[in-house]
Write a structure and sequence with these properties.
The protein is an alpha+beta fold and 796 residues long. It has four domains: 37 residues; 206 residues, DD-peptidase/beta-lactamase superfamily (Beta-lactamase, 3-Layer(aba) Sandwich); 182 residues, Penicillin binding protein transpeptidase fold (Orthogonal Bundle); 147 residues, Immunoglobulin-like, CATH 2.60.40.10. The chain contains 24 helices and 25 strands. The protein has a five-stranded mixed sheet with strand order 2-1-6-12-13. It has a five-stranded antiparallel sheet with strand order 8-7-17-16-15, sandwiched between helices. A five-stranded mixed sheet has the order 19-25-24-21-22, with no helix packed on it. A hairpin with a 6-residue loop joins β1 and β2. α2 packs parallel to α8, α13 runs antiparallel to α22 and α14 packs across α16. The longest helix has 35 residues.
């Protein structure tokens, strides 16, 4: 090469260098002058700014995160020392390998990225350091303009002069987005893997470090999982090349099989319960405070027991769907001594759209069937009836405007069936309740009074029985709609010896600064006498008393534990219930269909009791309990009518009647006789006398005769000399020793015909309209002639 050529080349190089330097100086001067007047956000409050944090809901231990209630962001800030070194190093390796050596800005990376952006016109390349990204995420908008980029560079350089590298890295790891509403490594780690950022493994760290560049594209739940795998491997390679990990760590991490949590359940446990809690805190503290205020909520939930409940509900609901056409179920448990909710399973699957799984059946009104009966019996016991009180379980018409021999339910007539179609005759209230027999329960409700029973249920915690006028005698068989939560809590009052603790779901709420906003304090209230609560528990835990209906080792029985339990099935087979309790846990389960369609015609003992039984066997191991204390002994037995003591055929005259005949309904211990004018008495007596006539081993109805033509015809009621009320119907009961010869019995009141009866039992309801002395005459007509008898009484 000639000297002139070399001279020319050298001159050209010098010109290029000088020109480049001049260009850099020129544009640098322009940049300096421009930046001096450019409006740049202040960073003076960078370290004191409050980062919006979402509310966290925990179980009762405070260690299991149930849910992160997020608004615009889900974020939990943690100090750098609580972030895995692998996560820190993985982030540096893939985002900014010279992080600890630069001053906030890498010129060559910036100009390279700018060249690509200019040529492509996409502004897709950033070339940003971690410091620049912190500035972008915290101090600037996300717009992609040159002016914003220049501000970013200037602020990054300034930030590096004020804060340490660790402070900047901590800000990045706590505030960078990891997909959707997830911000910060702690939230991402919990969401994707169910572990804290401190516990993240090398492979998990590599996955998380892969996400910030393109969180949506690299999402483990998206359609580009292969790209996520490649980027994870790239992160591991960069970590190895930069000396963050050894060869063996690199090889093991590449082969490690990492399980991401299901997207449906990622970040949420016990979903029905957490949304139950969320609704409460949003109502109390406001939606914004819950979404971004960083509240910490410690709940009452026992997550171990919750998991068992969820498994049991899912398993049995799927089985019931196949066997009983009952596709859904729910389960709830509380601690009776505190009211704290331990489990809440609102369906077989919260995300199961086939059954509207998001509906929480524990707080949805359902008819409880016979599960309502203990409230009615408890009210009756407090009124003066005893567990040994006898009523007659016989087919009965209960509508006063219907004929006693009309044994159907239609229009305004009401004649319910027992669940098994069997009628047992005289039975104690203990046996009737333990075996869940319907006819005695309806009679007990009538004697107790509907209003009194509603008041009783409400006092125990049933909140849904508002309109008293809509309920009648069907109430005792589940005619009102209730919440499973209320029912379990109300049964818990029996478990807690009559003391109510209103259900609670929260132990403590703290704000982001750790200030306690509210904390659980026990608020107990005695609502029923201890004797009544213990009587109900004694009956519902009496395996011998319930064995005729359920068997000796039924699903209501828990080996080794004293457990009280009651089932309930609605007449239309749309709801099946069971609620049971020990002194330490009260639990109830419901089975049915969310669309309210009917199940197979099987009682709750088959459909839902096995589900409850499996849960309770586990629960009583976690919450062991002593046996129920027995109720206090009855001290006035000798003063009670024989029917209240369990004797139904001890009348001196040999008469047999139902309880309403013998005792004053509203004061059974008064010693006063039953009201002859009670509108239910003719109905009850007709059924009892019909039952007597069909039971040859029992004595015929008899009374001292008052005759005018023979001794075969008797007026059993009203009694000679009775005093009755005008306008109040009373039952006329007549008997004949030879009914096969009688064609009819006609009745005359003061000479006026009032009606006739053609077959046994001879019962007719009569309503006196006048006052004064009355003569009731009964005439028995037969093929051999007529005979008559009469009694005198007065009406006032």
């Amino acid at each position: 090469m000639s000297r002139s050529i070399r001279r020319t080349i050298g001159h050209t190089i010098r010109l290029f260098v000088v020109g480049s330097a001049a260009t850099v100086l020129f544009w640098g001067g322009i940049l300096f002058a421009w930046s001096s007047i450019l409006s740049i956000p202040s960073i003076d409050n960078f370290d004191t700014r409050r980062i919006a944090e979402s509310t966290k809901i925990y179980d009762r231990t405070g260690n299991v995160l149930l849910y992160d209630v997020h608004g615009a962001v889900r974020r939990t800030a943690v100090p750098l020392e609580d972030i895995s070194r692998h996560l820190r190093n993985a982030t540096i390796a893939i985002e900014d390998t010279t992080f600890y050596s630069h001053y906030g800005f890498r010129p060559f990376s910036f100009f390279r990225a700018m060249a690509v952006n200019v040529l492509s016109g996409s502004y897709s390349q950033g070339g940003s350091t971690i410091t620049q990204q912190v500035v972008k995420n915290t101090l600037l908008t996300q717009e992609k303009k040159l002016t914003r980029k220049l501000k970013e560079i200037l602020l990054a350089i300034k930030l590096e002069h004020i804060y340490t590298k660790d402070q900047i890295l901590s800000a990045y790891l706590n505030e960078t987005p990891y997909g959707g509403t997830l911000y910060g490594v702690e939230e991402a780690s919990q969401y994707f893997f169910g572990v804290s950022a401190k516990e993240a493994t090398l492979a998990q760290a590599a996955y998380m470090a892969s996400l910030p560049q393109a969180p949506t594209r690299y999402s483990p739940y998206g359609t580009h999982r292969d790209e996520l795998e490649k980027r994870k491997d790239l992160v591991l390679q960069r970590m190895f090349e930069n000396g963050f990990i050894e060869q063996e760590e690199y090889d093991n991490a590449k082969k490690e099989n990492i399980e991401f949590k299901s997207e449906a359940t990622a970040g949420i446990k016990a979903p029905h319960f957490v949304f139950f809690v969320r609704e409460y805190v949003e109502k109390k503290y406001g939606v914004e405070a819950v979404a971004n205020g960083g509240l910490k909520i410690i709940t009452t939930l026992d997550y171990d027991l919750q998991k068992k409940a969820e498994d049991v509900v899912l398993s049995y609901a799927l089985s019931n769907e196949k066997n009983f056409n009952a596709e859904n179920a729910g389960l709830l448990a509380i601690d009776p001594s505190t009211g704290q909710i331990l489990t809440m399973v609102g369906s077989r699957g919260y995300f199961d759209t086939d059954i509207d799984g998001m509906v929480n059946v524990t707080v949805t009104p359902q008819q409880p069937g016979s599960a309502f009966k203990p409230f009615v019996y408890a009210a009756a016991f407090e009124k003066g009836y005893t567990p040994e009180t006898i009523v007659f379980d016989v087919k009965t018409q209960f509508a006063a405007d219907c004929k006693p021999d009309d044994m159907e339910t239609h229009e305004d007539c009401y004649s319910p069936e027992n669940y098994d179609g069997v009628f047992r005759g005289p039975i104690t209230l203990r046996s009737a309740l333990a075996q869940s027999i319907n006819i005695p329960a309806v009679k007990v409700l009538y004697m107790t009074g509907v209003e009194n029973a509603l008041r009783y249920a409400t006092s125990l915690g049933v909140t849904t029985l508002g309109n008293r006028d809509q309920y009648g005698l069907t109430l005792v068989l589940g005619g009102g709609e209730v919440y499973l939560l209320d029912m379990v809590s109300a049964y818990g009052v029996f478990a807690n010896d009559g003391v109510k603790n209103t259900p609670v779901a929260i132990l403590k709420v703290e704000d982001a600064d750790g200030t306690v906003l509210e904390e659980y304090t026990q608020k107990s209230e005695r609502v029923i006498p201890i004797s009544i609560a213990r009587t109900i528990s004694d009956i519902l835990s009496d395996d011998k008393a319930r064995s005729p209906a359920f068997g000796e080792a039924s699903s209501l029985y828990i080996p080794g534990s004293s457990v009280a339990a009651k089932t309930g099935t609605t007449n239309d087979y749309r709801d099946a219930w069971i609620i049971g309790y020990t002194k330490t846990i009260s639990a109830g389960a419901w089975a049915g269909n969310n669309d309210n369609s009917a199940m197979e015609k099987r009682v709750a003992g088959f459909i839902v009791a096995p589900l409850w039984n499996e849960f309770m066997r586990y629960a009583v191991q976690k919450y062991p309990s002593e046996r129920f204390a027995p109720p206090p002994p009855e001290t006035q037995l000798d003063d009670l009518h024989p029917m209240l003591r369990g004797v139904w055929n001890a009348s001196p005259s040999g008469e047999v009647h139902d309880l309403l005949y013998w005792v004053e309904k509203d004061n059974p211990r008064s010693g006063k006789p039953g009201s002859a004018g009670d509108p239910q008495l003719p109905l009850w007596e007709y059924s009892v006398q019909r039952w007597l006539q069909g039971t040859s081993s029992l004595p015929l109805l008899s009374a001292a005769p008052v005759t005018q033509g023979g001794s075969s015809l008797f007026i059993v009621q009203p009694k000679q000399g009775a005093v009755l009320q005008r306008g109040t119907p009373f039952a006329v009961i007549v008997d004949h020793k030879n009914p096969n010869n009688v064609t009819r019995i006609a009745l005359y009141l003061n000479g006026q015909y009032v009606g006739s009866v053609g077959k046994q039992p001879y019962i007719l309801s009569v309503t006196p309209t006048d006052v004064g002395s009355m003569t009731l005459r009964a005439v028995a007509e037969s093929s051999s002639g007529a005979e008559e008898t009469s009694v005198q009484f007065s009406v006032r």
